């Protein structure tokens, strides 16, 4: 029976010289999973790393002969998973799939599997963790953008001269919304469909993790939120564009009026004033 060990997975957008990708993720933007051995003496990564591109996995040997040993192992895994977890975090996901046991939460996983399937199961955990992290980032970005949308929604039906100064900022927020929509579209297939490149048991683990994490409902919720953002900013962009065009036309009209008035004044001066008169 092998010894328990902790591995640290980093999700990076480029490989350093000499690094080898354990997994490559094409969507929503190219990333790589790089595996490094983590020292057990240092313990698991802090909870804050859940959103910083780090996944710590505690690998336990899968040949535990007695039910009591299984329970003790699960309790130890639960304690390891819970270390440093914020009090308001949702409960970890606990699964038993094809002879493998897993406890998972963002940034950390405890995996007990036999030597013949440990590697494939680890790949399934890594793949799910990356895509779930990308979905969570989208959720957090959308949640943090509601205040801006509340301030900008007025522009969907009216605009004032002072609003022209904020057109660039509104355009930036519209661009962010479109970028999130693109990321959502590219990410969705990876969370809705099984990865056929993984063995059947690993694919089953990934599917169960997606179901237990509620990714279908979460993707639908983000999709609905993005539709609201797109609708408001599309109308605001159109309104601001129309107002800017109207403002330019008014300025041009006043310039023309000024030129005509100046020309008329010169004509009047010419009629009533002559040199030496």
Q: If strands are numbered along the chain, what order do they take across the biggest sheet?
A: 2-3-1-4-7-6-5
* H/E element order: EEEEHEEEHHHHH
Backbone CA Rg: 30 Å
Tell me what portion of residues adopts beta-strand conformation: 15-25%
Poorly predicted sequence stretches spanning 5 or more consecutive residues: 44-49, 64-72
Structural class: alpha+beta
Overview of the molecule:
- This protein is an alpha+beta fold and 277 residues long.
- Helix content is 53%, strand content 16%.
- It has a seven-stranded mixed β-sheet with strand order 2-3-1-4-7-6-5, with helices on both faces.
- A hairpin with a 5-residue loop joins strand 2 (23-25) and strand 3 (31-38).
- It is elongated.
- Mean pLDDT is 79; it is low at 44-49 and 64-72.
């Amino acid at each position: 029976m092998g010894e328990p060990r902790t591995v640290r997975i980093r999700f990076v957008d480029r490989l350093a010289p000499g690094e080898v990708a354990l997994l490559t993720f094409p969507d929503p933007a190219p990333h790589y999973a790089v595996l490094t051995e983590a020292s057990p003496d240092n313990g698991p990564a802090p909870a804050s790393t859940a959103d910083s591109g780090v996944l710590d996995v505690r690998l336990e040997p899968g040949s535990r002969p007695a039910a009591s040993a299984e329970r003790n192992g699960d309790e130890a895994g639960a304690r390891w998973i819970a270390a440093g977890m914020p009090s308001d975090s949702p409960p970890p996901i606990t699964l038993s799939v094809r002879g493998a046991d897993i406890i998972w939460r963002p940034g950390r996983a405890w995996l007990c599997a036999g030597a013949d399937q440990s590697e494939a199961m680890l790949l399934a955990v890594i793949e799910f963790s990356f895509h779930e992290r990308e979905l969570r980032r989208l959720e957090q970005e959308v949640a943090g953008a509601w205040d801006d949308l509340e301030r900008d929604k007025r522009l969907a039906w009216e605009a004032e001269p002072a609003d022209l100064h904020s057109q660039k900022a509104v355009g930036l927020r519209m661009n962010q919304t479109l970028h999130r929509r693109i990321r959502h579209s590219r990410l969705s297939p990876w969370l809705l469909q099984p990865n056929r490149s993984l063995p059947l048991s690993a694919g089953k683990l990934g599917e169960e993790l997606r179901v237990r994490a509620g990714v279908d409902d979460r993707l639908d919720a983000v999709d609905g939120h993005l539709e609201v953002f797109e609708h408001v900013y599309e109308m605001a962009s159109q309104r601001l564009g129309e107002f800017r065009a109207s403002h330019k036309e008014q300025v041009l009209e006043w310039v023309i009026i000024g030129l005509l008035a100046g020309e008329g004044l010169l004509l009047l001066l010419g009629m009533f004033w002559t040199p030496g008169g």
